[in-house]
Amino acid sequence: MHDINDMLLFAQVVKARSFSGAAARLGISKSRVSKSVARLEAVLGVRLLQRSTRRLSLTEVGEAYFEHCERILDELGRADNTIASLHQTPRGKLRFSAPVAFSTLHVAPALADFMLQYPELTVDMNISDRLVDLVDEGYDLALRITPEPGGNLVARRLAPIRRKICASPAYLARWGMPEKPTDLAAHNCLDYTYLTTQGFWHLGGPEGDISVPVSGSLRINDDEALSQAVLGGLGLALLPTFIIGSELQSGRLVEVLPGYVPVERFIYAVHLPNRHLPLKVRVFIDFLRQRFGDEPYWDQPGERLWLGLSPQERER
Question: Is this model's pTM higher than 0.85 or not?
Answer without folding.
Answer: no
